[in-house]
Amino acid sequence: MPKTPDTAVTGADPARWKALVFIALAQLMVVLDATIVNIALPSAQQDLGISDANRQWVITAYALAFGGLLLFGGRIADLWGRKRTFVVGLVGFAAASALGGAATGEAMMLGARALQGVFGALLAPAALSLLAVTFTDAKERAKAFGIYGAIAGGGGAVGLILGGFLTEYLDWRWTFYVNIPFAVVAALGAYFVIREPAGGRNRSPLDIPGVFLSTLGLVALVYGFTRAETEGWGDTGTIGLFVGSAVLLAAFVGTEAFVKHPLLPLRVLTDRNRGGIYLSLGLAVIAMFGLFLFLTYYLQVVKGYSPVMTGFAFLPMIAGMIVGSTQIGTRLMTRVPARLLMAPGFLTAGAGMLLLTQLEVDTSYAGLILPAQLLLGLGMGTAFMPAMSLATLGVDPKDAGVASAMVNTSQQVGGAIGTALLNTIAASATTAYLTDHAAGATTPAAQKLVQLQGMVEGYTAAIWWAVGILVVSAGIAFALINAGKPGPGAVAGSGAGAGADDEVKIPVVAH
């Protein structure tokens, strides 16, 4: 008798593809929110009377809560159950979004953003770990993570388009309210459709010292980079945050090595492939944040694009990510070792970034920016897909939540570093250019041109660093990730019966 799609994989949940729709929808909401609020920020600041000095806290409040609580959120998913955590995260995120949209002042807005971060820290690792334990067949896993990777990579650019439309044609408050239908549909779908595999919970007592040390350490690290952007790298407070973060995270690692039930079992980190994924992915996100940041400024400030036009200008990159993730990554994931997808993927993205180092004030969009975005999208989509899949491959289901949280943590920390580091480099290059050329600009038109040229000089200086970072990411992926292509059938370690220290049962490529 021929196999139906739902019985082709022995013991698989027949509703798993429907479940993927709601998991992907939730992930899209979280990723959209990361960029959609940036578009709305100027309008919200004016309406709510937020000072320039406090404006950054609309972004920082979310980043600190989300980044600091991710590991805790992943552990809660393992303890409570991923489906329950997923639904609670969605409902809480929707409520916090409603609060942000209805904000009447600065305090209410900042509180809403912090709450979004708290519930996002529950939602994000629960979504990825649900995907990891639901799709255990190698070919199906490749397809599922291809879709998830495309959303994770391209959702931020979609946020720019949606944010531009909502801000320009409706009101900035809708950039918050738009999360509510996403969350309601995803929560209802999850409640009725998702069936979490049995035996995957980790009911061990909660590692309270680990929770405090990891949360405080990650908050200090993210805030340190955020503060460095505004106060400078040599600022006493910035240095103090970095030192405090190093001490707290070192204490966290020491604690996890000795406690009986660690928040983050070190075996999750010390696995060669997962360690390579976390490191290369975190570095690549630094470069990606640089692209969104500087290309958005370039298109709006230098080229004079509206927010909506700017959003549409990112469409080639979204298309590239979808093709790279769902067509290249998905089709090749079960045929070639992951490093032969990730390393070339990062290098392809680096080639796209390299094109953007040639930006000038009068650069043609079609002649340079469009092909650069296509290369970036193809490269990142191809690399992100195996990275998302491999990051949870072979993990005991009881550790799937914290392993998934580490993927999000590496991206969150990478984003904080990218924003601060690349902004600092750009600002320094712009200042140096203006110092050298301002004296020669004697008319208003000449002065404006020098200002624009100085901005572009800053962007290209930072983008050169992003190119180098992507090359390093490719090197790390090629050197550390030695897992071969998955064999046919179920992926070892993904089912309920995997042991805590099970190895990934796939061929290994010799160095």
From TrEMBL:
Entries under InterPro entries matching the protein: EmrB-like, MFS, MFS_dom, MFS_trans_sf, Sugar_transporter_CS
Membrane topology: Multi-pass membrane protein
SUPFAM superfamilies for this protein: MFS general substrate transporter (SSF103473)
Cell compartment(s), UniProt: Cell membrane
Top-level taxon of origin: Bacteria
Entry-linked PROSITE patterns: MFS, SUGAR_TRANSPORT_1
Recorded coiled-coil stretches: none
Domain Major facilitator superfamily (MFS) profile: 19-485
Keywords annotated in UniProt: Antibiotic resistance, Cell membrane, Membrane, Transmembrane, Transmembrane helix, Transport
Pfam family, one: MFS_1
Residue ranges of the TM segments: 20-41, 56-74, 86-108, 114-133, 145-166, 172-194, 206-225, 237-255, 276-299, 305-324, 336-356, 368-393, 413-434, 462-481
Main location: membrane
Protein name as catalogued: MFS transporter
